Each structure stands twice: as structure tokens, then as C-alpha cells.
Backbone:
């Protein structure tokens, strides 16, 4: 089978070598499309692929229509909002992700970003410590759990809100289950977002929630930009000159936010949560193995469009 690895943001070389190794040992052929600068290039290259591995690359109905042989798409990562599931499902194309494989990298970045903002973006002046501060985790999944664990080691108090996770599970980890989202925003100095981008969550973080945060509160987004109501975020930062926003996924209006709020906002230049060799290797190798297994045995364990 022909496997196309299409990554606008390439994997580390060690990950690519490992993926090739797994696929070629099983008798598959691997082709690489990296750092491509237009969606048309993916449309063109996918034409004879039986399997596709992507990261945040957009798998649009046009990509699917151009891929006559395609049987499986694996998102080497967690969030699959970049893949048009309807287009895949209507062609019986299996879509999978590789949950948990890059979570530690994202969690480490979340902690680093909290410290960076607490120390005035590493510029001179008096900062503050995260020890003793309260952190609220919105969605207690693979990343949320790791952020909680690391934050507790650094002496933070951790709360979490997740309607899909029993309170007992959080308590076992030393995390306080929040009775409501509002309660968590009201009580926490930092809120770390870990919800996926879905029709329900899009633009769900807005003025009313953000302005519940206590004085000096800092909202941290290593999830998706789509979950933020940007106009309302801007209004919240305007009305509350004590609040801060840090993100790994620059807002559409980021230039405006930077100009208006300066030191109180920060965005990484390009999403880098999962940009570690370890995360690339874990997610990349998992993606290749899942494809090999799918073709060999029909295993669809990580299918997200069942
Ligand atoms: C994910 O959903 O797995 C993360 O957001 C990482 O995305 P990336 O592979 O584009 O870095």
C-alpha cells in the first residue's frame, strides 16, 4: 500500500525514519510531503495514496475527492478538527487519531508558559511565583491530567472541570473537582484550556467566563484558537486591565491584541505544543503502526468516525 505522510509542519527526522521503518518492514511504500505551501500540493500528492498521515494539516473534501484509493487517514496527534469526517465517512474512509502520544510535550509547554508570564516574559522587574497559586484545568483528559500532575509538583493547588470525568478520578489525583465551570473561573489564578474544537465548544470561552477570574488572572490556551470568542476576549482584556492571555495558537486578531495589551498577552509564533522529538516519535510511530495493523488485521481501535 502507498502511505503518504503529509506534514506542513514536519516531524523530527528520527520520527520520519522510524515511521518509514515500520511501514516498509510491513511491505508498504512511504512518500513524504513536507513544508508544502499550498493546499493544492496535498490535493495533487494524495492522488494515489491508500493511507494518509497528517498533523494539523487540513484534510478537506477536496483532498478526499482527489484521493481515489484512500482507505485510512491517521491524525498523528489528538485533535482531529482539521479532518472533514463527513467527507471521509461518506467514502468509508477510516479516520484515527493517536490519543495521548504527544500530551506530555503540550503539558510541559503549558507549565513553561505560566512561568514565562509570571516572570514578565523574562524581562526585568518583579514577577511572581506559581507555587501556592490556584490552577483550573478545563477538561481533564490526557493533557489536562499531565498539566495537573506537573503543577501539583510545583506547589500549585489544582482544580478541574470536566463533565465527562467522575469527581472521584480527580480526587484520586489530588485534584479538586469544580462544581461548575463558573466556580472554577472565579477561584483560579490560572485557567488552562484543554477542550477540543467542536460545534459545542467553538467560541465558548468568552467575556462572562473570563471576567469571573480573580484579580491578575491568566487564561492559558494550548488547545485550539477556535474555542475562544476573540471579540469577547478583547473586551474582557480591555475592561479588566489586570487579566492576561497566553496562547500556543495565535488568535486571528493576535496583532491587535499584542498592540493593545502588550505584556499582558503572549502567543507563540507557531503552534509548538507538540514540537518535541519525543512527541513526534511517539505520535508518528503510533500512526504508522496503526496503519500497518489496520491493513494487516482490520484493527480500528482508534477510529474516531465509527
Ligand atoms: C494535537 O491535537 O495533537 C496537538 O494540537 C498537536 O498538533 P500538531 O501536530 O499540529 O503540532
Residues:
Amino acid at each position: 500500500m502507498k502511505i503518504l505522510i503529509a506534514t506542513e509542519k514536519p516531524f523530527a527526522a528520527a520520527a520520519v525514519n522510524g515511521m518509514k521503518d515500520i511501514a516498509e518492514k510491513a511491505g508498504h511504500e512511504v512518500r513524504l510531503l513536507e513544508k508544502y505551501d499550498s493546499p493544492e500540493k496535498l490535493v495533487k500528492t494524495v492522488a494515489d495514496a491508500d493511507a494518509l498521515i497528517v498533523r494539523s494539516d487540513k484534510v478537506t473534501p477536496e483532498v478526499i475527492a482527489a484521493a481515489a484509493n484512500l482507505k485510512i487517514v491517521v491524525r498523528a496527534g489528538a485533535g482531529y478538527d482539521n479532518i472533514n469526517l463527513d467527507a471521509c465517512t461518506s467514502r468509508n474512509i477510516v479516520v484515527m487519531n493517536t490519543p495521548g502520544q504527544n500530551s506530555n510535550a503540550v503539558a510541559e509547554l503549558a507549565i513553561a508558559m505560566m512561568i514565562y508570564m509570571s516572570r514578565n516574559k523574562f524581562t526585568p522587574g518583579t514577577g511572581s511565583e506559581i507555587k501556592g497559586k490556584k490552577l483550573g484545568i478545563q477538561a481533564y483528559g490526557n493533557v489536562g491530567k499531565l498539566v495537573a500532575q506537573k503543577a501539583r509538583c510545583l506547589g500549585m493547588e489544582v482544580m478541574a472541570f470536566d463533565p465527562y470525568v467522575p469527581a472521584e478520578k480527580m480526587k484520586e489525583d489530588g485534584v479538586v473537582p469544580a462544581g461548575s465551570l463558573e466556580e472554577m473561573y472565579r477561584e483560579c489564578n490560572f485557567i488552562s484550556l484543554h477542550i477540543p474544537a467542536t460545534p459545542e465548544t467553538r467560541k465558548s470561552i468568552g467575556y462572562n467566563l473570563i471576567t469571573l477570574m480573580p484579580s491578575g488572572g491568566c487564561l492559558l490556551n494550548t488547545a485550539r484558537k477556535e474555542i475562544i470568542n476573540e471579540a469577547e476576549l478583547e473586551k474582557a482584556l480591555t475592561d479588566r486591565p489586570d487579566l492576561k492571555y497566553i496562547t500556543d495558537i495565535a488568535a486571528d486578531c493576535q496583532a491587535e491584541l499584542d498592540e493593545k495589551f502588550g505584556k499582558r498577552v503572549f502567543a507563540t509564533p507557531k503552534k509548538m505544543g507538540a514540537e518535541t522529538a519525543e512527541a513526534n516519535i511517539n505520535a508518528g510511530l503510533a500512526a504508522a503502526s496503526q496503519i500497518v495493523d489496520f491493513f494487516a488485521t482490520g484493527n480500528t481501535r482508534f477510529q474516531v468516525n465509527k
Remarks:
- Residues 277-297 form the longest helix (21 residues).
